[in-house]
Write a structure and sequence with these properties.
This protein is mainly alpha-helical and 286 residues long. The chain has 12 helices and no strands.
Length: 286
């Protein structure tokens, strides 16, 4: 088993931070992730999403430099923007970065709090709700906050809020209320199906993807189900059936989709069962 995954599985134990940082610096995965330096804004986002999955990665010099660059170039007065411009804030990237910051122990920073406040102020979790967000850059991507709100934005925002609640604060009433609203909406869709017909809502929503990227994936949905403790809800059964049907003959899962973009770095190949997916799926679904 990969040493970083073993560390992830045991990260709640009392482990010497300095010794662990020295260990992960020698990891093939970490060396691969940190080998690229000349990145655009999206590339930096994908790097920090990957690094946030690795325990103690916040202590790496590469991560600290990257966080400083994201704080300067991508964090705005309203939240995280994939271009660095306020008018281009979109729900998915803002929420993904909120989750990454929480995993890195940075959930209390002003940058993470701005991202959280954007979700509180502007994200909608039901159809036919009006948003207070007035910038039009979001419409370049199909209208994330139109009458039928983008399901990807809802899913990513709920995941970000769940991570925030689990890792930063359990007592934020606004966060808890928004999670309840969003989960209710996702359960109506049986997590991944259209209301009008029995087909997946969006591309890649039935694909296992790791590390995270902007499509809402099966991996995201499994984490949402696990964090929100939805496994026993009848509405989730079609999703659980889908996950079971995707098992390989060896009882594991393979990464279905490999995203291609500067900065995005898969942890594993698609040739064999994914140890990371096995860990996450078994962890979140018991």
């Amino acid at each position: 088993m990969d040493e970083i995954l073993t560390l992830r599985m045991n990260h709640h134990q009392n482990i010497n931070c300095q010794t662990t940082v020295q260990m992960i610096e020698k990891s093939k995965i970490v060396k691969k992730i940190t080998s690229e330096t000349d990145l655009n804004t999206l590339g930096k986002i994908y790097k920090i999403l990957a690094l946030s999955e690795i325990p103690f990665a916040a202590e790496l010099a590469y991560t600290k430099k990257l966080i400083n660059e994201i704080n300067t170039e991508i964090s705005t007065v309203e939240g995280f923007s994939y271009t660095g411009k306020v008018e281009d804030i979109v729900p998915c990237y803002n929420a993904m970065l909120l989750g990454a910051y929480c995993r890195l122990g940075l959930g209390h920073t002003q940058e993470a709090q701005k991202a959280l406040n954007w979700i509180k102020k502007y994200q909608v979790f039901q159809r036919n709700q009006l948003t207070r967000w007035s910038h039009k850059g979001i419409c370049k991507h199909g209208g994330c906050l139109n009458a039928v709100t983008c399901y990807i934005g809802i899913g990513k925002s709920i995941k970000g809020l769940l991570i925030y609640r689990d890792l930063v604060s359990q007592n934020d009433c606004d966060v808890n209320q928004l999670i309840d609203q969003g989960i209710d909406y996702m359960l109506k869709h049986q997590m991944y199906l259209r209301l009008s017909e029995n087909v997946p809502i969006s591309p890649h929503i039935t694909d296992s993807i790791f590390p995270e990227t902007y499509p809402l994936s099966l991996t995201d949905l499994v984490e949402i189900v696990g964090r929100a403790q939805l496994k026993n809800r009848i509405e989730v059964q079609p999703l659980l059936n889908l996950i079971e049907s995707k098992k390989t003959v060896d009882g594991g899962w393979k990464v279905d989709y490999r995203y291609h973009y500067q900065g995005y770095m898969p942890f594993e190949t698609r040739r064999k069962d994914s140890e990371w997916l096995a860990y996450f799926y078994n962890n979140w679904l018991g």
